[in-house]
Amino acid sequence: MLIAQAASVTASEVIRAELAAARAAGKPVVVSMGGMAASGGYWISTPANYIVANPSTLTGSIGIFGVITTVENSLGFDWCSY
């Protein structure tokens, strides 16, 4: 049974990859969501053949974090002052 909320990104991906490998090897993957399967718990569930959840299971919300690298500060540009 999966009961997870804000899990480590690395741990979630390691578990998801192992479940995906099990499925690729022909093993059925069934996820049973408990009271909550959010964030990493939701991600872990994605390779499953079947997902079972109660009507009251709180699920969803894969957080996104990104970094956009720019050179403006390195070049001395200050876009906030004129």
TrEMBL record:
Pfam families, alphabetized: Peptidase_S49
Chain ranges of the Peptidase S49 domain: 22-75
Q: Per UniProt, what is one GO molecular function of this protein?
A: serine-type peptidase activity
InterPro entries reported for this sequence: ClpP/crotonase-like_dom_sf (IPR029045), Peptidase_S49 (IPR002142)
Enzyme Commission code(s) on record? 3.4.21.-
Give the similarity note: Belongs to the peptidase S49 family.
Instruction: Tell me the protein's name.
Output: Signal peptide peptidase SppA, 67K type
